[in-house]
Queue: 4 jobs
Job 1
Amino acid sequence: MRCARPSICVVSPRTTDTVNQGIVSLERLPVTTLKGVGPRLADKLAKLGLHSVQDLLFHLPSRYLDRTRVTPLGALQPNTSAVIEGEIRTCDITYGRRRSLVCRLQDGTGTVTLRFFHFSAAQKDGLVVGTRLRCFGEARRGASGLEFYHPEYESLDEQAPQPLEARLTPVYPATEGLTQPRLRTLAAQAVACLDHHPLAELLPETLRRQLHQVPLVDALRYLHAPPRNAQVDQLMAGEHPYQQRLAYEELLAHHLSLLLLRRQTQVEQAPQLSPDNKLEQRFLQQLPFQLTGAQQRVSAEIATDLAKRTPMLRLLQGDVGSGKTLVAALAALAAVGRGFQVAIMAPTEILAEQHRTNFGAWLEPLGIELGWLTGRLSAGRRRAELERLASGEAQVVVGTHALFQNEVVFANVGLIIIDEQHRFGVHQRLSLRQKGAQNGVCPHQLIMTATPIPRTLSMSAYADLDTSIIDELPPGRTPVTTVVISQDRRGQVVERVREACAQGRQTYWVCTLIEESETLTAQAAEATAQSLQEALPGLNIGLVHGRLKGKEKEAAMVAFKEGAIDLLVATTVIEVGVDVPNASLMIIENPERLGLAQLHQLRGRVGRGAQASHCVLLYGSPLSRQGRERLRVMRESNDGFVIAEEDLRLRGPGEVLGTRQTGDMQFKIADLLRDADLLLQVQQGAQLLLREHPIQCQHIVQRWLGENRRYLQV
Ligand code: ADP
Ligand code: MG
């Protein structure tokens, strides 16, 4: 096969010597230059993001069919596709649950059934007993052993049998109206174009040799049509060296895009915020405890960044309860000490309130003015707060997303702190930064995650940030003991709550989200509170859920904190931040509905005081195998980093990172879990390229991220 319209397949006039032997415009060659591609087909291809011949080349098979060999019937495995050959022994219409044509096929090694639910009389007449057939399809376990439903078949000419396929048959990611045969011919045409137009090899020779990598073109040719002796298992798992070669380049492209983004921000000016030692001393003296070693180390890392002229971009990771807030407060102090404002943004109202309380208690005694901005303020209060921000009277402002609405104007914000709970992707991070920029001065940015992020994910999703890790809990914490109990034993659990509260231990009872509906969940929480009140008449029971007014929620939280409430029934709104050291028992209903990170975050609400704490995971049976596995992880580990890794393994990067970031992390070929061991090489390769081949970097990003790299443009 050749390029359909060779006249168009010419070397680009834009050829530069920066890219190996001359850039060829396969990326500029629209799919419509291929045979049989008109505007309608081009539209369908565009749905898959395929615009150019090069896009087709990089649209790789998601799996393969092996039609290169005949599998003896006796060696067939269920749920795999295979070519089989055999003689028809019987062929009858049966009337079981559904009328079907059933054909028994036999070879020297075994027997299988071919089953057709739709068939014509002519078809039945063609399947004569004694005829030899060759079929292709997927073997499934059926009523009579292994069965093939509607296989492809042809009768076999013993004298001159059709040759089998010489290569594995690719199966491409498809979309409606695009058939596999169509995609296969297009891919074959695209591969044929490589004969005339070598595709630019973007990885420098040194790097390729170091990584023992095959040339890109060889990998592409091979993967679109692997030979019959290829390692099928390896290919199906995405672990073939040629696939890994491409996965490496794709991961590299993503990594580079983040590093380039970061580089862009580093040409911006930031205020130099060297620490105000006096202020810091006064702050530390009023604390009832000493900083942990980890808090000191991390604070020093942040202080170094803040004192630079370029904007800090730092991710602060630490397990639940490791004391991130205090580190953030120290950073805030540096900004305030130099006359700059600080904006602290929390993902929820409750957490924002909590921060306001904490920061208020720490900073107001030092004479620092706090501001407060959420979506729920009255118009008058809001106007007043906005004025205090614009005038610079409010030095540290705490709030929710409302902080970054257009009408919010700061006098001079020098530091933005985001308690983000995995909610922001690269684009959001960038736009927050731009909002804070004024008169060419860009604020520093500190991002705190609510729970640790698995290393593989932070290496890729957060490559544009520096990372600080608090790897030590404050002293005197007793680890939470977790037990897993079925709803069938709810009565015993209620009894346990009674005993705990009788001993003066406060308890959380958490109701989990029902079908993404806050209303239903709130109703369930109300019902639970009521039934618990009936079962435990002696206790003061409070209720917090997302449908309550801010005031009501706050009142319940304050009452719980002051000990006026024994048992707090809540939805997962209390997930983050809430800090009541005397609470030492938590019941989580239907924990199987939540992700591990979220469970860990919830559980982190207890175990904050000196008392031994307990967490009861009250699951609804029956549990799925994965559900059981996840609860086991919770029972066995209290370490947020371990739990994050398990969460990644069990649920995949999309779930762990959250929707916003998943968009940033969509790969064509790479798989963060499978290819985790490539990441270190990717990091090193990216550094080398940035240093020595800066122009190549742009090309690599363009090739793999194409349109998605909008955020790279200044
Ligand atoms: P997280 O990292 O989960 O945000 P917080 O900042 O809310 O943790 O801190 C959890 C609790 O630990 C708070 O009550 C805080 O006052 C307390 N704390 C923080 N640092 C220390 C420390 N060095 N020693 C003792 N307690 C601390
Ligand atoms: Mg916190």
Note: The longest strand covers residues 81-95.
Job 2
Amino acid sequence: MSIVTRFAPSPTGYIHIGNVRSAIYPYLIARQKNGKFILRIEDTDRARYVDGATELIEDTLKWLGLEWDEGPIVGGPNAPYFQSERKEIYLEWAKKLIDSGRAYADPTPPETIEAYRNECTKNKTPFLYRNFRPENPPKWELGMPLRFKADPKDYKWHDEVMGDMHAGPEVQDDIILIKKDGYPTYNFAHIVDDAEMGVTHVMRGVEYLSSTPNYLALYDALNLPWPKFVSLPHILAPQGNKKLGKRDGAKSVTEYRDDGILPEAMLNYLACLGWNDGTEQEIYTKDELIDSFSLDRIQTSGARYDEVKLLWMNGQWLRRIFDEQGVGALYDRTRDFWPEVAANFDEDYKKKVLSIIYDRLKTFSDLRSMTDYFFKEPEIDLDLLTKNKFVKKLSEAEIESLLKESIAALSSLSEWDADHLQSVLNDLLEKTGKKPAELFSLIRIAISFAPFSPALNLTMEVLGRDKTLSRLNAVARAI
Ligand code: GLU
């Protein structure tokens, strides 16, 4: 039997990293087993529906490289893939339950249900609607809630992550199948859809584990086989013991994209948040993840979100792309991230800048703050110079003479490349008797006025002779 998995998000807002991991695991296992990965939009909660959220979900999956075999845009044999367009299908299935006496119209007004609930709270007993089930419900018609008629019993089932599970009758209730507005509940719709779409592995957040007995009762009442259940542990907030949520700063996945995180790094990071293959490996390509993924190595406890680790991984990926595919490939990814002042510079120049700075970037958005001085004349800030922990050991007269000596030595250089520049710098060290940290910090600040720059000889090579010398001269004059 071939594997069919699905990602079934609700378009209720932006899709944050806590949600999207529930797409990654079903995707990986489907690809590994040559199965199918379905995208289904669960948009039956009309009150929480947010315009544009579906497009955001689609963009996010595309950006991460999680292409779906059936679903919105691509279509498929089980279309439509929006639950709001499948109302007739749910009604047909609901009818089966009505006909077999397993579903009934619920005439109870919400205020009465509230009163039942309060009564239970007062008596310290759990509220179960089935204890208040009406004796002679009216014939069901659209506009009334339709409820399942539970036949509570013990259930045992196996969860591929959580192991053997067991629940008694006390957790089963007459859950709502179709709401007053004619839309099905999640509880009912997902069972119908998973069955119609041939889903073999229901992979979703562990928050659905406690409702599983109600779902099992529904499968049985509908004569449907149980799929495999795979409960995915939560991603935890950086602090405390709660699930990562929007309030803990869980950004939307596309925000990370806009901040310059690579999709490879995001996929890699999220896949390894709650799963490992038992080795020390940390960096995985998508293909490697597909090969090594296994359900039995998904961890049972929550995994903590750690942005520092994500940034580290992004740095690893930046270097990997540069090393394996060259500066051109990395450059192609950076287009939106250069500072405005870079707009009129040609690609070759920007590629040179990138090739000396890429290994210091955490994300592409660092390009904006770290490369300005390659594109515009830096403002001379003598404080930055004289307060530097190495330069401040030098007197003003020393600074002036060091700058002059450097200008003289560099001006006479015939070949302006990193190697020749390095030997001039080494000669200067010898001649002046200064420590590298002192002399090089002085020159570095004088040509960049930036808190950080790549190796001095590389920076000077990329800046070129004219800019380097004119900046050094300008500082020498200003001292
Ligand atoms: N629509 C549900 C959600 O967004 C999906 C749960 C499931 O995957 O079945 O949480």
Note: The chain has 19 helices and eleven strands.
Job 3
Amino acid sequence: MTAVTENPLAEGLERLPVRPTALVIFGATGDLAHRKLLPALYNLAHEGALPERFELVAVSRSHHADEEFQAIARESVQRFSRTKPDPAVLDGLLAEMRYIPGLFDDDSVYGDLGRALDELDDKAGYPLSRVFYLATAPQFFPIIIGELGKAGLNATAEGGASRVVIEKPFGYDLASARGLNAEVLEVFDESQVFRIDHYLGKETVQNLMAFRFANALFEPVWNRNYVDHVQITAAEDIGIEGRAGYYEGAGALRDLVQNHMLQLLALLTMEPPTAFEANRLRDEKLKVLEAIVPPDLASVPTMAMRAQYGPGGQGGVRVRGYREEDGVAPDSRTETYAALRLRISNWRWAGVPFYLRTGKRLARKITEIAVTLKPVPHLAFSQEGSLGVQPNQLVLTLQPNEGVSLRLGAKIPGTRMSIRPVNMEFLYNTAFLSQSPEAYERLIVDAMRGDATLFTRNDEIEALWGIIDPILTAWKQDTTTPIPQYPAGSQGPPEASSLLEPGHVWRRL
Ligand code: BG6
């Protein structure tokens, strides 16, 4: 038996201390801060996961006094925290927080911010690490980065650190992502930059790596010899939730495929990294992403399709179609559904189709990866007894009902040899009793610790955009082909089946 050996490459990071930190949230009155960041900070405080000295500074365009913003933050936590807030912990988190109002392109805001941060250092008696979290609309990212540089806030004081966390969307297409990378890297070193994809902070997404690399069972079949095809689904039941301003310019491909879904694909198909460490993991993801050959414009219609939800019913309620939503153009061509067929040109995966689909207002919310193996080469049973034989299928459900299920063929009890499929199930919430933290909790701690393993590197983000750029271009150029409509609450457009190879069907949602 081989002993489990220590991996010095992987040691250290998880044990990195969370140094005393000042976290500066730009866009602190926005939706993301309200729904995710402030509740995540509360839960970290509640679990004692914040550093022993932690200072929160909020920057936003609206004018509020410190106390007014504290009241807003309190309400966010009360509404969106995954645990019922303990008033003493919440008071402790918010009591000292500062609010700096102002426009993001106003130099004086950064003067005020610099002074506030210096005061916090003086109070501590040593330099705090500074983490600047950009939770604003994307058009402000380059402005804020430039201003931080001008004010010298990108510099790392001895014993401290200066880091920037950048939300999605990082760029709008390949060219703009490259441009943004260049602007960011002019001010910050790559080691200071943390590009967020909140899917990477999800427990079940990390479990994908545990599953692949902590079990010997799967590696031998994890290749073109055994895998027939893979389906990755990110279906949502919600609509655009009042975000027409953003969504009209984005669409499903930019909103979910370019980032979350391609990240899932990369983690599923990359070669085993030598260590669970930022650059080793990202090197492997980059390699596999670069092996996905982007389509030429003419072949886009054969490998990608888009659709929009029309009116329909969801949970017994009539809902409007996308083109009737407030803020959406009645002739909008923005897709609320996208499906792709991708291929990975390397030894491991050549010839295996990878199907991806995502959509708003589908029958239910489910994010899953289904790996279907090839059929057995020969059936030794009678024809009648074999009727129920189906290929093995491994389904990793990322949300909700997180777990893993493996379809096997089993004998039906009785005097005859008849086979039918059965499922072997692992369910997260029965195997582990503790509640999983929210993705943002993990990612905020990692950024404070300086561990970029679960963040996207500059070359990786460009590889991700490179895959979908031709599809975006082809869809933009096509201004006449009608966009298929699917009823809200349905399985999605039947036209999506045209991407599948013979014998394949989309899994039922
Ligand atoms: C966000 C998208 O990145 O992910 C949203 O902008 C989408 O449109 C959301 O609803 C889905 O995230 P989750 O964690 O609910 O699967």
Note: Residues 236, 255, 367 surround 6-O-phosphono-beta-D-glucopyranose (CB under 6 Å).
Job 4
Amino acid sequence: MSDLLIMKFGGTSVGSAERMRASARLAAEAAGSRPVAIVVSAMSGITDLLLGTMRHAEAGDRAGMEANLANLRRRHQEACRELLPAARIEPVLAEIETLAAEFERLANGMALLNERPPRSVDEAVAAGERLSALLVAEYLSAQGTPAEAVNAWDVVVTDAVFGNASPLMEATRAKALQRIQPLLDRGVLPVITGFNGATADGRPTTLGRGGSDFSASIVAAALDAAELWIWTDVDGIMSADPRLVPDGVVLAEVTYAEAAELAYHGAKVLHPKTLAPLADRRIPVWSKNSFAPEKPGTKIVASLREATGARAVASMTNVALVTIEPASIELNGVQVMARALDAIARANVEILLLSSSSFRGNFCFLVRAAELEPTLQSLEQALALELAHGYLNPIKVDRNVGMLAAVGEGMQGKPGLASRIFTAISRERVNVIAIAQGSNELTIAVVVNRDGLEKAVQAVHAECGMGASRRKDSQT
Ligand code: ASP
Ligand code: MG
């Protein structure tokens, strides 16, 4: 293992010329004493803007496209003028124009076809990260830290699942050594685009929304880095969302498994897939705030010396609970479930929670509200006959729900914890609709009425002593 440090800067950390300056300073400082490579997101809001432009294109809304394209150019041109010394402004404006024009060409193609092929979307949307990488690399170089923007489609090799690709690590390792290592050897700081990659035969892909964290961990694993620092706009991984729980605290250390569970269940600080590539090599990760770099942040490690109960509670609104129920006991419930899950998988939808324990073969699962439409379409197609003939009751959907998940390695083999969590929720008169706990006992996930979510989260946080209150208790 080398001394290599990978830093990842999220959208708000490169969201303006001022933020790019602050982030570049953090990278340059570290690069003074060890090799550093950085991975950047698009400037905040740009990925949404690009995706919105392509939706306008598909709908034939020329005016919408034009407005977005003007906005895209303006944000990056402004940042360029604010950041760079006079001599570099014109050449970099020209490079910005090349990237913007390339995006525009792809969007125009979509407008002609009235279609947004996933493959073209992936190629086009990478413009956001390519633009931010260009600006950050130019600024670093101008400030005396030689840097080079690297398009991750020359580094991260993935499968061909456009919009949600997975890395092929062996191939990625080879490419990373070929493209990144020579830069490091020459003392040049690579500024790598997050979010995107390419198949082995060179077709551009992306890793899914928020995927730049995942990009950074893929690069860290591929180059066998010593550490990964993920810079965001919050102080680290918290015991609960501070907007719901004012006495939530930043956790000093969490395990890979805990961080992944928290991210999966709604903690926005990290993409849930981030930790997977690092676990083998036990590469430690720091989650830090680029707006307050002096704060220690959270360290994410393979294991903790002492695991203590439930450590944090994550929560999600914007979810929907889908229930499937056979109308007749003659229907084989397991087969229905198998076909339903297959249909959901084909729609590329993530199930957040799944629960079944009924003689009738009734089962329910939770999906993101944004993924409800494709979920229902795919289910209705797969189960059309049973639904038409009344063997299955109509699929039920409840959007008025929220989910909370209590997470901690230390919950394993601890009797009484589930009872305390449910007692705390019921004390608040919040009704529990569905429950799931996997046999690894890392997470207890609970679906409640949306109205009750906030109270339930606060109750669980207090009952399990996750926040400041526990510190006070243990001092007395
Ligand atoms: N820019 C991409 C997104 O907004 C990736 C990222 O920010 O991590 O989803
Ligand atoms: Mg992001």
Note: Residues 5-233 form a domain with the Carbamate kinase fold (CATH 3.40.1160.10).
